[in-house]
Write a structure and sequence with these properties.
It is a single chain. The chain is 53% helix and 16% strand. With 186 residues, the chain is α/β, with parallel strands linked by helices. The chain has a 5-stranded mixed β-sheet, with helices on both faces. Helix 4 runs parallel beside helix 7 and helix 5 runs parallel beside helix 6. It is globular. The N and C termini lie far apart (38 Å).
Length: 186
């Protein structure tokens, strides 16, 4: 399991044109308008290195949006391909160090692998009660062309923003629910 030291680097990278245009709606919402957590959240981000130039767009967008949503303690891990993601997610969940885990990858022309990865991520989430979010995508067609590369890089920016929002909203909801359970309200 390799923890990437690129976390702090990725936060300071200049956004591409695609990131700038896609992230505009997020940038228009100041961090002060997002609810704060009662306790600090620690999130793991597990990224496939297969088609890294595409998948990293989700990571970059996720890190920026997560910070706006008051999630600043994020550890980034890289695995060879999407097939390796579930095992890493399971081991990370078992450490109980993380309040959520996000997975990102691109599966090309293999629906079996995509379905297997998604099913395994759901199993980890249900077994450990650690929320697991997926930005593992399996497009119907992907060609090694500049046009497809540009399209999917932009698409992964959107997925990074969406998964950050889903992660923050879920963690806030679970924090409230667990507080109610502890207080005997729920």
């Amino acid at each position: 399991m390799n923890q990437m030291s690129q976390e702090s680097e990725s936060r300071s990278e200049a956004p591409s044109e695609a990131q700038s245009s896609q992230a505009q709606s997020s940038a228009e919402t100041p961090a002060s308008q997002h609810r704060r957590f009662a306790k600090p959240q620690r999130v793991a981000f597990v990224q496939s290195s297969w088609h890294r130039e595409v998948v990293e767009e989700a990571r970059i967008a996720f890190l920026r949006e997560a910070e706006v949503r008051h999630i600043t303690n994020i550890d980034v891990f890289e695995v060879p391909g999407s097939f390796e993601i579930p095992l890493h997610v399971q081991i990370l969940a078992k450490t109980r160090r993380y309040t959520a885990i996000v997975a990102a990858g691109l599966v090309v022309e293999n629906k079996f692998v995509a379905e297997t990865v998604i099913r395994a991520l759901m199993d980890v989430q249900l077994r450990t009660e650690i929320p697991v979010f997926s930005a593992v995508l399996a497009p119907e067609q992907f060609h090694e062309t500049e046009v497809h590369g540009d399209f999917f890089r932009k698409h992964f920016v959107i997925k990074g923003l969406e998964v950050a929002k889903a992660c923050a909203d879920t963690l806030l909801s679970l924090e409230r629910l667990r507080g109610q359970v502890a207080a005997g309200i729920a």
